[in-house]
Design brief:
The complex is a heterodimer. Chain A is mainly β. Helices cover 7% and strands 32% of the residues of chain A. Chain B folds into 3 domains: 6-50 and 161-228 and 314-373, FAD/NAD(P)-binding domain; 96-153, no CATH class; 232-308, D-Amino Acid Oxidase, Chain A, domain 2. In chain B, helix 1 crosses helix 8 (339-352) and helix 2 (61-85) packs across helix 8 (339-352). The chains are: A mainly beta, B alpha+beta. Chain A binds chain B through residues 45-46, 70-72, 91-97, and chain B through 141, 240-243, 245, 259, 292-295, 297-299.
Chain lengths: 97, 374
Amino acid sequence: MFKRLGDTGATLTLTVDGKPIRARIGDTVAAAMLAAGIDHCRTTPVSGAPRAPYCLMGVCFECLVTVDGVGSRQGCLVPVAEGMKVETQLGKREAGR
Amino acid sequence: MLKDAYDVAVVGGGLVGVATAWGLAREGCRVVVLDEGDRAVRASRGNFALVWVQSKGYGLAPYAGWTVRSSEAWAGFAETLKQETGLDVCFQRPGGFHLALSEAELQARADALKRLHNQPGIVQYKAEILDHAAVKRMLPDIGPEVAGGSYCPLDGHVNSLRLFRTLHTALNARGVTYLPDHRVEAITREGGEFQLVTARGTITAGKVALAAGNANMRLAPMVGLEAPMLPERGQIVVTERLRPFLHHPVVTLRQTDEGTVMIGDSREESTDPRGLTIGVSATEASRAVRMFPLLASANVVRTWSAIRVMTQDGFPIYDQSESHPGAFTVCCHSGVTLAANHALTVAPMIARGALDASLVGPFSARRFHVQAAG
């Protein structure tokens, strides 16, 4: 759905649910997931409906993901890093994770 | 009787008021509930939602029996509400804990329970002190600092916001008249009926049940009664929704049916419901993390303070007026725990026009005047 405006800049690799995706240095996790064509990053704790990043500025909390084992991180506020492990968050967060 | 008159006017539309009003409607009474507006200081929207037995009754043994009675009636109460409204208030009674974070706290807890249960005439029920290992079998996520705790199988909890909504739904279905923005300014009695004066008009009723929480202190003298209150503030911290991990409520911490963890049990003398003391929230959160270390990474999504309805000695007040026959007070701190009693035991007494002294006699406000009561 989304296309990058240009194709310059250094890249790195992170994984989303174990699958490697390429991202640009400086991307947020949410932007990298959108650019990789991932259409939802979590399901809600209430109804289980899928959700995707929305406001991209830290306000709406739709882009919650598990980053390197820590749940409920806001994907739009976390810069990508080489080797980062991102997981879609299904329903309620697991306590202690 | 005037054609718009009611059998009973319940003053107060919080949990105590609506539970009482629902019970009255079940007895066939024509009931009106006079409430304040949305900005009322309302414990029903800020409470911790325990249906709690252990610890209750030190200093007034019959309060323990009164609490056990409500605890035993709660499952049937919830089921009846579900049949009437289709709404589930999520009552659970898995047994609850009071956790101690040191050997000294555990000893103090054991001593308190011993003093409570040694009182003459107190109802007997199970409440036991467990060590760390025994607690861990039931609460696997406790931290190493938990020395132990007390456990009582009668303790439970409920979704109290849903209880509040459910009782209002049930009242509506039973044809009870609910009048918000009707703060009662004065009550008089003429011709065998009560006139309740509000800024929006005067309501007439054969009986009056004062269930207005801390405001009963202002209202009770209007009908020859008294309700000595001592409001206090409590604060609550709420986490994001987590997968179920805590299968028993702890007196200071519980996981709701929806997954959030509520942390609370502070007491402050302030009666400002808008303020929040950060140090108090921080202490609550810190103790919660020491009890359950996996909470350290949970996000807090809400904090609030609320004003507890509290009588001056902490025990309920149920009274009927001698000077104004037909006027009653229904006043207590534990509006959630005692909701089943108010609906199923107190309301029928009010409908009959007389409190049953064998059940609620010990809770008269006359206890505040030992010498005057002779």
